[in-house]
Design brief:
There is one protein chain. By secondary structure, the protein is an alpha+beta fold. The protein is 44% helix and 24% strand. The protein has 26 helices and 27 strands. α26 (660-669) links the parallel β25 (651-654) and β26 (673-674). The radius of gyration is 37 Å and the shape is elongated. The model is unreliable at 149-153, 690-694 and 706-710 (pLDDT under 50).
């Protein structure tokens, strides 16, 4: 959280007045603690509730009538006394101040309300009124009442001063000096120089209105000088009592609303800006985008959206820490603002995602802007004595009649293409990307439907011993059902699940379905049932501190043991393991779960990681198996991996066995296990034979060489 955010949160939380942001419909969007105390309700009880629901029925019509005048522009704000109904049914009398916040085009956004409990104050006023009535009955009582009034004024935090018909001060309460930073001279005229230059004419006008007729009351808001170098916001209620002998002048009740004003402005700023960079946030950016699109269409022009993110931000954030990452984002935001043209809008959506909205330029102007942005970001950024080099990928989409939300999604799709094509480049959204975006949307929608309602389908492919053809296990392979009854392969679903943060839910669903199938096979086949099932696990799953406990709960619920599962990890997962992942791996080993390294040989293939992590098996990638018997180099690679497995006591499983030649070569090389279509295709759980069986494909092949070291 940035300093601005902290100051705002402190001001909001500690504001002495009740404060709220209220939707045009009347719903409370945000409230502070003071408001909850005043109304006798919790924050959860207020958020989403309308002010209409808790307003006293006798005061509601007047409140709504004033709101309508504010929205219509007849008045800028209003102040009224109204009653609220507390949660326990009690009635609280409050002074309500309401102002309407509009956007840059003058359209209403929401109301900002300040609420002060005046129940006690009204009781004081009523007491004073009773005292005034008693004053007419007895002079002694009058002196007592005057003493009470004087004491109240002497100790009040609000300022009270009185001026006669000529504007000379006849009384000023002690709080006056605290507010203005100087005493107001009795017998002297009010010094208009104390008012802000922009407010002096308004102050003169208020004075004239009050003096125009006895009993007139005028409310106004001004800025006044405090001391020599500060301006305070004040709220003044001036009432003409010139004709009353007891007063003989205009009574000015003054309240310092500086902190309340600042808090309201901070609330409004926070609602529309990113707290870290100060750029527009998503809410304001979408409002601004809609306005720019509408204005551009009226001029027969079009708006362009540039969607960009940093190519190396995650690496920098992980290696250098979040403080460095935040400083980097702030500097990126500053550079973007210095690079764009006047009238362009720059916003941050979150993380390292930024958006630029530009209008009125030709295509080449927009492309030139994108190139300037990339050039600006390639200049190394100095943070903490270190120069950090970053680059950006940018997607561009032009307005062609779509909604602002769709325009932003189109730019995001172009950004994804830029990432896929090597990063640090610019891509423009086109029809092909539109089709791809629609496909991604359909895939995500179908995946969410499956996870929320129908559940995934898991197929299983047998893993076979090449010694005797015995079934030693199976690999669980997820399939995604579609609404029309088809079953789709998981490749694009897994990629999208990782991008959308759904990989944890998908992985858990696969584990649950796999354990359910294994328990069913064990129940049907008895002691001859399937020994174990291997399940692929993504890096993000291992990075979750809840993964181990959720896995243990699933295994126990289906009556299995951890030893019945093998988890297959990608090489990149092992190489890039952070502390959380390492702790998870250690916990899995302690549970008894086997860990296999999948697609061995296609990534880093570091022997140090085989030693560091408790890996008990490696899956030899099918790309090496495919050319066995025809490519001598692949044969030697496979021979080396098998020898490595034997030396490190690792189980080696060859993947993708599809021909007798491949199978024969693997047996000659001494490979312990294999899987592939030749040995058995992936099959639905209900049709998979979990009992021990011999495979005819091993008959007629070359005998396995005798390993005399066994």
């Amino acid at each position: 959280m940035g300093d601005v955010d902290r100051r705002f949160e402190i001001a909001f939380a500690q504001a002495p007045l009740g404060m709220a942001i209220v939707a045009l419909s009347g719903e409370f969007l945000r409230v502070n603690d003071a408001l909850c105390r005043i109304l006798g309700r919790s924050e959860a009880g207020l958020i989403g509730t309308t002010f209409q629901a808790i307003t006293h029925a006798d005061d509601l019509d007047a409140d709504l009538a004033l709101l309508e005048r504010v929205v219509a522009g007849e008045i800028g704000r209003y102040r009224m006394e109204k009653r609220y109904v507390a949660a326990d049914g009690g009635v609280i009398t409050c002074q309500l101040d309401v102002a309407l916040v509009r956007d840059t085009d003058g359209r209403p956004l929401h109301f900002v309300s300040q609420v002060q409990d005046v129940t006690e104050q009204n009781r004081v006023v009523e007491a004073l009124e009773r005292a005034a009535a008693a004053e007419r009955k007895a002079h002694a009582q009058a002196r007592l009442d005057n003493a009470r009034l004087a004491g109240f004024l002497e100790h009040a935090t609000d300022v009270v001063y009185v001026t006669d018909a000529d504007g000379f001060v006849t009384y000023a309460s002690p709080a006056t000096e605290k507010l203005f930073g100087r005493a107001i001279g009795i017998g002297l005229p009010v010094d208009l120089d104390v008012f802000h230059p922009d407010d002096r004419e308004a102050a003169r006008a208020v004075s004239a209105r009050v003096l125009a007729a006895p009993g007139t009351t005028v409310e106004s808001v001004h800025r006044v000088r405090h001391g020599d170098d500060d301006w305070r916001h004040i709220e003044v209620t001036s009432t003409n009592h010139v004709g009353e002998d007891a007063i003989g002048g205009v009574v000015h009740n003054v309240r310092d609303i500086t902190e309340r004003t600042r808090a309201a402005r901070q609330l409004e700023w926070q609602a529309y800006h990113d707290g870290l960079t100060g750029l527009s946030n998503r809410l304001f950016l979408m409002t601004r985008l809609a306005a720019m699109v509408e204005a551009a269409r009226a001029r027969d022009e079009r708006v362009a959206v540039l969607f960009l993110d940093l190519d190396r931000f995650k690496v920098i954030n992980d290696e250098r820490g979040h403080d460095t990452g935040d400083q980097l984002l702030v500097e990126v935001g500053n550079r973007l603002q210095r690079t764009v043209r006047q009238g362009d809008e720059v916003g941050r959506l979150g993380g390292d995602e930024f958006v630029i909205v530009t209008g009125g330029g030709a295509d080449e102007d927009v492309r030139a802007l994108a190139d300037r942005v990339r050039d600006a970001l390639t200049i190394p950024i100095a943070i903490g004595g270190t120069l950090l080099a970053v680059s950006a990928s940018i997607g561009i989409a032009y307005d062609s009649g779509q909604t602002p939300e769709r325009l932003l999604r189109d730019a995001d799709a172009a950004l994804l293409r830029a990432k896929e094509r090597g990063k640090n480049r610019v891509e423009v959204f086109n029809e092909a990307l539109r089709v791809a975006a629609q496909r991604r949307l359909a895939v995500e929608s179908n995946l969410r439907r499956v996870l929320d309602h129908e559940g995934v389908i898991v197929h299983h492919q047998p893993i076979v011993s090449l010694d005797d053809g015995r079934l030693v296990g199976a690999e669980a392979l997820v399939r995604i059902p579609t609404a029309d009854g088809r079953v789709e392969l998981p490749a694009e679903y897994i990629t999208l699940a990782e991008e959308r943060g759904l990989i944890g839910a998908l992985g858990e669903a696969v584990l649950d379905a796999t354990c359910a199938a294994l328990a069913d096979w064990r129940a049907r086949a008895g002691p001859q049932g399937l020994p174990l099932v291997a399940v692929n696990v993504a890096a993000r799953q291992l990075g979750s501190p809840l993964f181990v406990s959720r896995l243990a709960e699933i295994v126990e619920r289906h009556g299995l043991r951890p030893e019945d599962l093998a988890l297959e990890l990608k090489e990149a997962t092992v190489i890039g393991a952070d502390r959380t992942t390492v702790r998870t791996v250690d916990a899995l080993q302690e549970m008894g779960v086997s860990l296999w390294l999948d697609d061995f040989g296609t990534g880093y293939s570091s022997l140090a990681y085989l030693k560091r992590f408790p890996i008990v098996g490696v899956k030899l990638d099918h790309s090496f198996v495919a050319e066995l018997g025809s490519d001598p180099s692949d044969t030697e690679i496979v021979r080396a991996v098998i020898a490595l497995g034997r030396a490190l006591d690792l189980r080696v499983i060859a993947e993708g066995v599809e021909t007798p030649t491949q199978l024969d070569t693997l047996r000659k090389l001494g490979c312990p296990c294999a899987q592939g279509y030749l040995l058995g295709a992936p099959t639905e759980s209900e049709r998979f034979d979990g009992a021990t069986r011999d495979l005819d494909v091993l008959s007629g092949l070359s005998p396995r060489p005798v390993d005399r070291r066994r």
